[in-house]
Design goal:
The chain has helices spanning 3-6, 18-21, 27-37, 44-47, 70-83, 106-122, 137-148, 174-184, 190-198, 212-223, 238-257, 261-264, 267-280, 286-297, 303-310, 327-332, 335-345, 361-365, 409-415, 435-441, 478-482, 542-551, 563-571, 590-593, and strands at 53-58, 87-92, 127-132, 152-156, 163-165, 168-170, 389-392, 399-403, 424-433, 454-458, 490-492, 505-509, 526-530, 535-538. By secondary structure, it is an alpha/beta fold. A five-stranded mixed beta sheet has the order 11-10-9-13-14. Helix 8 runs antiparallel to helix 9, helix 10 (212-223) runs antiparallel to helix 13 (267-280) and helix 13 packs across helix 15 (303-310). It binds FE2/S2 (inorganic) cluster and magnesium ion. FE2/S2 (inorganic) cluster is lined by residues 66, 97-99, 134-135, 172, 206-207, 211, 213. Residues 374-579 form the Dihydroxy-acid/6-phosphogluconate dehydratase C-terminal domain.
């Protein structure tokens, strides 16, 4: 008897798809399940052959241009699955596109997570290829992989080719922040602004800067959830097609080996990823997403781990916004393996962590060298020492993060140069209630914004601006830009785009909408920011704050516009704990702990 006939899988757990397609104990239901999957031409012999059924979670669509190339790549994934002896079933997922989705793509991360869990758990799949790319698609996939815990591998779509304008590299997002300053200063007109920004998107793929997409795809590889060397391959390259094919081969092998996310997503893997995030100059969105994945995997991970394990790691990847280069350069320089190879040989990451291909980090990257030291610098002569994230706290919030790698010399000089107190400065705040308020008033001279002002954005967190808006990086008033001031300290309960080089204090929790002290700040108050002690304090006494709280009339939770906004608001946690749906966290490894769902008829 074959494995399929005797219901075994060579001594390994039986394939879960057999419960749908070949269950001798329940022929009625087997017939019902099988017949409909035959209707597009799969034969009965194939579907009952005992081959692994592999889902391909398709995130590409016209609504998701960053991931759209997956529509092509999936064909090569299918070929890999078939050549390895599996059967592919591709399915669509809820679209997420970072810049196109209003009010936020962050709102959709948890929705895509939920839909992926339902799809992967509720349909006949023995393994799954998650297609990832644009910012939130990677965490949504890894969160779902963790919750369901069947063999899972991620396939990145890859970055766009480098953007160019008049002989200079123009990077996604980063050029927008620069171009809006130029527009505000009258250096370019509207048409010039559009041309400059469009030049940064020359091909299919995700943002070619070290924004949240390159960050999260790099960290997915660092975690061991995608094939080594895969994250940085530009989307249009032939290597990307080949990588799609190899991913298809790999997932079938993973099913036979019963290698699951729980074998890969260990605390060791997360520690490695935190260190890689510092070395690449990764996005401030990384802690939100990695903490979310860890919570769904049941792995202990706190915001303090980012400071404790990542702050001392140097920046070595010279990509915009912290540096000069873009995605194609990153790939040619060796990508994630070249970064991890250096970190491993310096004893900064743990080589014993297992990855999807069944090999350890050491086996995958232990001897990989950098191909271009202008793009990936040597660890012993880095671009910046201590480049990780700093975790700040104080009376204004319990937690917020700041990316140390983007603090410019100009910024340091202006704010952190008092010899008596070199790591701290105090400024008068100007408070904005949401991005509309900011856009409306930023150039209003009556606000009196000067080079020592601190700009505060509130009402932009996971509850207040459902999902959390990337609006904390605010440009200074045009008059200040014309005077040569390119960045003011910004602080808020929202996020900042990973493509922004602004030295902002972000993701402050608790947000104003859930009663955080940020709700009580008034324009003209003074705030002290001490990067030495990691303290941010509102210099207003307790009694005054209590009075303000009692008199607080503003509701920072606007009316929900869709059912999901309302549901999300009622269930979501704060940024410091991953902004997950809190009641989803108890569902862990459900393929093992909950078994197979009941029959549908
Ligand atoms: Fe989709 Fe940047 S907007 S990757
Ligand atoms: Mg973004």
């Amino acid at each position: 008897m074959s494995d399929a006939e005797n219901g075994t899988n060579g001594g390994r757990p039986p394939l879960r798809s057999r419960a749908w397609f070949d269950n001798p104990a329940n022929p009625d239901m087997t017939a019902l399940y099988v017949e409909r999957y035959l209707n597009f031409g799969i034969s009965l012999e194939e579907i009952q052959s005992g081959r692994p059924i592999i889902g391909i979670a398709q995130t590409g669509s016209d609504l998701s241009p960053c991931n759209r190339h997956h529509l092509e790549l999936a064909k090569r994934v299918r070929e890999g699955i078939r050549d390895a002896g599996g059967i592919a079933l591709e399915f669509g997922t809820h679209p997420i596109q970072e810049t196109g989705k209003r009010p936020t793509a962050g709102l959709d991360r948890n929705l895509q997570y939920l839909s992926l869990v339902e799809s992967v758990y509720g349909y006949p799949m023995d393994g799954v290829v998650f297609t990832i790319g644009c910012d939130k698609t990677t965490p949504a996939a890894l969160m779902a992989a963790a919750t369901v815990n069947i063999p899972s591998i991620a396939l990145s779509v890859g970055p766009m080719l480098n953007g160019w304008f008049k002989g200079e590299r123009t990077g996604s997002g980063t050029i927008v922040w620069k171009a809006r300053e130029m527009l505000a200063a009258g250096e370019i007109d509207y048409k010039g602004f559009m041309e400059l920004v469009a030049s940064s998107a020359p091909s299919t793929g995700w943002c070619n800067t070290m924004g949240t997409a390159t960050t999260m795809n790099s960290l997915c590889e660092a975690l061991g959830m995608s094939l080594p060397g895969s994250a940085a391959i530009p989307a249009p390259y032939r290597d990307r097609q080949e990588n799609a094919y190899r991913t298809g081969l790999a997932i079938v092998e993973m099913v036979h080996a019963d290698r699951k996310p729980s074998d890969v997503l260990t605390r060791t893997a997360f520690m490695n990823a935190i260190r890689v995030n510092s070395a690449i100059g990764g996005s401030t969105n990384a802690p939100i997403h990695l903490n979310a994945i860890a919570r769904h995997m049941g792995v202990e991970l706190n915001l303090s781990d980012w400071e404790d394990h990542g702050a001392e790691i140097p920046l070595i990847v010279n990509l915009q916004p912290a540096g000069e280069y873009l995605g194609e350069d990153y790939y040619r320089a060796g990508g994630v393996p070249a970064v991890m190879g250096q970190l491993f040989r310096a004893g900064l990451i743990d080589g014993s962590a297992l990855t999807v291909n069944g090999k350890t980090v050491e086996e995958n990257v232990g001897t990989v060298e950098v191909e271009d030291p202008k793009v990936i610098w040597p660890l012993d002569a880095p671009m910046k020492a201590h480049a990780g994230l700093s975790v700040l706290s104080g009376n204004l919030f319990d937690n917020a993060v700041m990316k140390l790698s983007v603090i410019s010399d100009e910024f340091r000089e202006r704010y952190l140069s008092d010899p008596a107190d070199p790591e701290a400065f105090t400024g008068k705040v100007v408070v904005f209630d949401g991005p509309e308020d900011y856009h409306h008033r930023i150039d209003d001279p009556s606000l009196g914004i000067d080079e020592r002002s601190i700009l505060i954005m509130r009402g932009a967190g996971p509850v207040g601006y459902p999902g959390g808006a990337e609006v904390v990086n605010m440009r200074p008033p045009a008059a200040l830009i014309q005077a040569g001031i390119h960045a003011l300290p910004c602080l808020g309960d929202g996020r900042q785009s990973g493509t922004s080089g602004s030295p902002s204090i972000l993701n402050a929790a608790p947000e104003a909408a859930v009663g955080g002290t940020l709700a009580l700040v008034r324009t003209g108050d003074r705030v002290r920011i001490d990067l030495g002690t990691r303290k941010v304090d509102l210099l207003v006494d307790e009694a005054e704050l209590a009075e303000r709280r009692a008199a607080l009339a503003v509701d920072y939770v606007p009316e929900s516009q869709t059912p999901w906004q309302e549901i999300h608001r009622s269930l979501v946690g704060q940024f410091d704990t991953g902004a997950v749906l809190e009641n989803a966290v108890k569902y862990q490894r459900i393929a093992q702990t909950k078994g197979i769902p009941r029959d549908s008829h």
